[in-house]
């Protein structure tokens, strides 16, 4: 990979000549792994390993056969232990990592969520509520929190890592937030960290689901450090009182500001910019956006705009409202059907065009749930 790949992507968001590689199949495969987690539980042992290594509390997501897909049970195991280590004077750092070579965590079991939503099961409330509560606990943890995000890091895996103090990427890291492809939005605090990336990079990633690899994850500002995978060892961190940046090998480089393609105040405006630009990059992104749920695109844009000035806690409250709106809508279930169940890759979105998604319907998704709002 070229050392300047991310810079070229940023430049092409103004006027491009390079066609970036979009591997739609990878996004589909990662979502499919997560949806299949309940059928592939042959892995022996607990879903999460919680142990002490020196003065470090170590969390290991222990479902490598399903790319460490996150479940509600895993959330319920991690949260109390994180709070215990935070208060424990003998624990000076918390480390989270994924078992296996392929993934840190590729996300959650979206098919299970879809099935629960259709049947009126409480999972659609409990999962989002408890996941966001854990994400907030990570973001407010008083101890250094180090996420070793080698391999696939998407969706729920982003929530388990990006709000911590240190996110260590490797050459194997693959980051993406592909939720708009299945009628959702980039949640788990995406409304907080994505608008805070330089320029319009966060909005670009949120709308398109574009994936970042290796050092680009650091250059984008998603990771704080980069280490070659062969040099990553939990024992190193466990022996330290807190992570030292010299050991974590920071390689940060400035990321140029994004251009005008994603500067519009509406999704229609962004689409118009892309089509008017006419470059191969712009044409590719316009084609990609045309496949996404129009409702998801509009919810995501407003989420990014609002989240840019919110606290982390306010973002989670907003995103819980959005999650429940999606659970009560059409597109999430249709996206899961088209991408993960029937796999025809031909979702029938309702509404089917951006123009049909009204401002009123978007605003409704952001309204307070009253006594059912998320409390942090």
Task: Tell me briefly what this model is.
The protein has 376 residues and is an alpha/beta fold. The chain contains 17 helices and ten strands.
Account of the 3D structure:
The chain starts with a helix and ends in an 11-residue tail after the last helix. The protein has 376 residues and is an alpha/beta fold. Residues 12-30, 32-43 and 238-258 have low confidence and may be disordered. It has a single domain (21-258, 292-364), classed as 2-enoyl-CoA Hydratase, Chain A, domain 1, CATH 3.90.226. The protein has helices at residues 5-15, 24-35, 72-87, 110-119, 123-139, 156-159, 190-193, 201-208, 215-220, 234-238, 245-248, 267-277, 280-291, 294-307, 312-327, 331-341, 359-365; strands at residues 48-53, 56-61, 93-98, 103-105, 145-148, 152-154, 166-169, 174-176, 212-213, 225-226. Its main location: mitochondrion.
Show the helix and strand layout.
Layout lengths: L4 H11 L8 H12 L12 E6 L2 E6 L10 H16 L5 E6 L4 E3 L4 H10 L3 H17 L5 E4 L3 E3 L1 H4 L6 E4 L4 E3 L13 H4 L7 H8 L3 E2 L1 H6 L4 E2 L7 H5 L6 H4 L18 H11 L2 H12 L2 H14 L4 H16 L3 H11 L17 H7 L11
Parallel strand pairs: 2-3, 3-5, 4-6, 5-7, 6-8, 7-10
Antiparallel strand pairs: 1-2, 8-9
Catalytic activity: 3-hydroxy-2-methylpropanoyl-CoA + H2O = 3-hydroxy-2-methylpropanoate + CoA + H(+)
Family: Belongs to the enoyl-CoA hydratase/isomerase family.
Protein name: 3-hydroxyisobutyryl-CoA hydrolase
């Amino acid at each position: 990979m070229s050392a300047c790949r991310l810079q070229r992507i940023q430049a092409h968001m103004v006027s491009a000549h390079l066609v970036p590689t979009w591997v739609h199949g990878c996004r589909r495969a990662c979502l499919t792994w997560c949806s299949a987690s309940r059928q592939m539980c042959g892995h022996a042992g607990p879903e999460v390993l919680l142990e002490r290594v020196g003065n470090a509390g170590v969390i290991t997501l222990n479902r490598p056969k399903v790319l460490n897909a996150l479940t509600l049970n895993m959330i319920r195991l991690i949260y109390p232990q994180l709070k215990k280590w935070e208060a424990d004077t003998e624990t000076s750092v918390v480390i989270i990592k994924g078992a296996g070579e392929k993934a840190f965590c590729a996300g959650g079991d979206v098919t299970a969520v879809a099935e629960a939503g259709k049947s009126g099961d409480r999972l659609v409330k409990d999962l989002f509520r408890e996941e966001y509560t854990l994400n907030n606990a990570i973001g407010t943890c008083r101890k250094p929190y180090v996420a070793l995000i080698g391999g696939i890091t998407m969706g729920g895996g982003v929530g388990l890592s990006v709000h911590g103090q240190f996110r260590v990427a490797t050459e194997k890291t693959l980051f993406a937030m592909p939720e708009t492809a299945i009628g959702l939005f980039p949640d788990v605090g995406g409304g907080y960290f994505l608008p805070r990336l330089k320029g319009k990079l966060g909005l670009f990633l949120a709308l398109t689901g574009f994936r970042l690899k290796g050092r680009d994850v650091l250059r984008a500002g998603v990771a704080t450090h980069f280490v070659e995978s062969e040099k990553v060892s939990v024992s190193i961190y466990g022996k330290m009182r807190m992570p030292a940046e010299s050991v974590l090998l920071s390689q940060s480089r400035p990321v140029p500001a994004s251009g005008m393609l994603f500067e519009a105040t509406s999704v229609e405006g962004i689409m118009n910019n892309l089509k008017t630009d006419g470059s191969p990059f712009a044409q590719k992104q316009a084609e990609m956006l045309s496949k996404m749920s129009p409702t998801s695109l509009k919810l995501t844009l407003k989420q990014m705009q609002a989240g840019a000035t919110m606290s982390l806690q306010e973002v989670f409250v907003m995103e819980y409202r959005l999650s429940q709106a999606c659970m009560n809508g059409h597109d999430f279930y249709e996206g899961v059907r088209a991408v993960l169940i029937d796999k025809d890759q031909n979702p029938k979105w309702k509404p089917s065009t951006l123009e049909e998604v009204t401002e009123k319907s978007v605003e409704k998704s952001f309204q307070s749930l009253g006594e059912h709002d998320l409390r942090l």
